[in-house]
Amino acid sequence: MIDVARLMVLRAAAARGSLSAAARLLRITPSAVSQQVAALERQVGVPLVERRTTGITLTAPGRALVATADVIAAELAKAERHIAEIAEGTRGRLTVATFASAGQRLLPQAVSALAADRPDAEVTVLEYEPFDAVPRLRRGDADLAIVYHFGSPRPPDDWGVGESLRYVRLRRDPVRVVLPADHPLAGRRTVAFADLADERWVQGWADVGALLDHHAAVAGFTPRVACYASDYLFMQSVVAAGMGIALVPTVALANPPGEIVARPLDPEPVRHVGAVYPIGRWHSPLTEELLARLRATVAD
C-alpha cells in the first residue's frame, strides 16, 4: 500500500515547485523531503519527479499520484470537520465559494431561507472566481461552489465534472450591452453587435473580455477600449460617466440609476450559472439543503 505520509510530501513538493520549498512548508529538512520522495518512487517503481536546478517537474505518474493525494487530503479535512461537528454537538457547517455577482444577487435569499429552517447551522461564504473555486472544492476548502461559464451549457471539461464533482444547473444569465441612457441606441429593444463597431468599450477581463473579442470579430470589428475593469459595478459607473459601453451579465446589472440602460444583444451571449459539489466522499448534509433553496430562488 502506498505510504500516505510520503504521498503528502510529494503533494507539498508539487504545490511549491521544489523540494526545498516543500521542506519549509512541512518544517523538515530538504534532505528529508528528498528521501521521502525517493522512497515513494521506489515503492511505486517509477520516477515521480524530474529534478532540475530550478525545482521539480512531475512526471505523468507523479501527476496521477498528486491528484489522488488531493482527494485524500480533502477527505481528511472533511473528516476532521465532521468529527468536530459531532464533538461540538452542532447540526452542521457549510462553506460556500461563490463569484461576486452571485454572492450579491443569488446566494443571500437562499442562505436566509436555510437559516430560517436551520438556525443552528453555520454558513461561511468565500468569494472566488470559478478558476479558484473549483480547485478549492477539490481540496476540501469548500463544500459547494457557485460557478459560471460561457458558451455551451455543459461545464468545462477541466473542472472534472462526473469524475469527482457533480454540476447542478441553476440558470441562464443573458449578457446585455450597457449604454448611457442618452445613447442613440438606448431606445432599441435589441442591439446588433455590428451596430457597435464604432463604440468605445469598457472591457472586462478574462472570460468577459474574450466574449467581447469573439463577438466583435464575428461582427467584423476590433473593439476600441477606453477602460479595462474586473468589477461589473465599476464598469457600469464608467458607462454612466460616458466613457464607453460594456457587456454585463443580467445577474450583475446594478439597479438602474437613470444614467444607463441595458439592452439585449443579437446574437445573445449567455453566461451559465451552476453549482458544483464533490461526489464520492463525505460532504455536509447542508449541501443538498442549500442547493434546493438555490434552485427554488434563482430559477430562470
TrEMBL record:
It comes from Actinocatenispora thailandica. One of its GO terms (cellular component) is protein-DNA complex. Belongs to the LysR transcriptional regulatory family. It comes from the Bacteria. One of its GO terms (molecular function) is DNA binding. Residues 2-59 form the HTH lysR-type domain. Keywords: DNA-binding, Transcription, Transcription regulation. This is LysR family transcriptional regulator. PROSITE patterns: HTH_LYSR. InterPro entries: LysR_HTH_N, LysR_subst-bd, WH-like_DNA-bd_sf, WH_DNA-bd_sf.
